[in-house]
Amino acid sequence: MNPSKTVCVIGLGYIGLPTAAIAAQQGIKVYGVDVNPKVVATINKGEIHIIEQGLQTLVKEGVEKGTLKASLTPALADVYLIVVPTPFKDNHEPDISFVEAATLAVMPFLKAGDTYIIESTSPVGTTERMAELIFRERPELQNTLYIAYCPERVLPGNVLHELVYNDRAIGGINEASTLKAIEFYQLFVKGELHKTNARTAEMCKLTENASRDLQIAFANELSIICDKADINVWELIHLANKHPRVNILQPGAGVGGHCIAVDPYFIVSDYPRESRIIGVAREVNNYKAFWCAERTKTAMHDFELKHGHKPTVALMGLAFKPDIDDLRESPAKYIAQKVMQSEQNNFLIVEPNIKEHSIFKLTDTLNAYEKADIIVFLVAHKEFKELAYRKDKVILDFAGVFKRTRLISVYR
Asked: Which sign, positive or negative, has the C-alpha torsion 285, 216, 360, 41?
């Protein structure tokens, strides 16, 4: 394969658009497809609809050079990348309907020799199921199409760098498909490309995020224990990590995003009896957000009893992690909604990474910090870390902005 080949990327979200932009930078002709007309129009103007460092420049250059074009419908290409969401249903069963819809959309364009790759996080066996779907509807493509799975493993805020330099696990439905997919990724990935089969590559992505979920669950559970034991969890973790073989993560308000908060359910759903620890970790991290909401409501009630009036409460952060605009599966958003639904206080909502929100009326960081009686840090955004600690405020620091949960003396 060479850069003169064309690529059709289905899904122009937090992974699809950066992937399309990086491929276009290498001179590959890229057709980006999205169901949202506003997203398509924005990209074709050389602009972006998500926050990601350096992405604006790449998109603008790709559009101006003619190597990147967005559309509502697929186009004829040599490589088809499926990069659409895979949410879960109310019963936590994975929903691959978007992957199936994307596959059906590109199916009329597929031809012998093409490469079809799923990047969307998927339950084990999804790639094989999509291959069966394609060959059932297009039997003439049997043994002529290369089908593989290659999950991303990037950190929001550093996506452009990690898409290029991180290793990738690439698994095809057969060896020829694996090699063909590797041939494509070699055009822009400088990390090592590891060969495997589709089922192992699918489970690899789920395993990576389930592992992270387990580690975070330990830290979150520890923070709840420390709150009851009147111990500063941040100091405790700092000291425990001095052990040469201990590396405890930092607790937070829960776990969010479209990976760690979702992917473990894909394992639990298919293997409920075998995935006991993975399932409990999910319960712990979900409970942490509920616990933060209850702690906030308790602080509000205590303030009212002490001062005789309801407090003004600043809820600091809505994104699922620091310094991004992504609110998907955000525990901070859940906490804000739960607290505001049950209380009639004056709330100030702060999220410096977005301009407006359809539900929350946003307030400036400094304004909220000055006016509020109770400050609830739900996300450790860099703007919050620049604030000075205020002893005259009631501060609930669930995100570790100041790394202290209460003012206690070292010696009692």
From this structure: negative
Residues near 283 by beta carbon (within 8 Å), at least 6 away in sequence: none
* pTM for the whole structure: 0.86
* CATH of the domain spanning 231-397, picked from 3.90.79.10, 3.30.390.30, 3.40.50.720, 3.40.50.150: 3.40.50.720
State the CATH architecture for 6-196. Answer: 3-Layer(aba) Sandwich (3.40)
Task: Quick: pLDDT tens for 334-377.
Answer: 999 999 987 777 999 999 999 989 889 999 999 999 999 999 99
Asked if residues 141 and 133 have their Cβ atoms less than 8 Å apart, the reply is: no
Residue with tokens 């659409």: 84
pLDDT of 93 reads 85
Q: Which of 205, 288, 321, 333 is catalytic?
A: 205
Planar angle of CA 182, 186, 192, nearest 5 degrees: 80
What ranges in 157-197 are assigned the alpha helix state H? 159-165, 175-185
What are the domain boundaries of the chain? 6-196, 231-397
The yes-or-no answer to whether 6-196 and 231-397 have a common fold is yes
Determine the Cα–Cα distance for residues 17 and 32; give it in Å rounded to an integer: 8
Looking at per-residue confidence, does 408 or 223 come out higher? 223
Which of 259, 288, 321, 333 does the annotation list as catalytic?
259
With both helix axes pointing from N to C terminus, report the angle between 276-307 and 331-342 in degrees, rounded to the nearest 10. 40
Instruction: Indicate if 205 belongs to the active site.
Output: yes
Greater confidence, 131 or 323?
Answer: 131
Distances (CA, A) of 240 to 129, 232, 234, 235: 46, 12, 10, 9
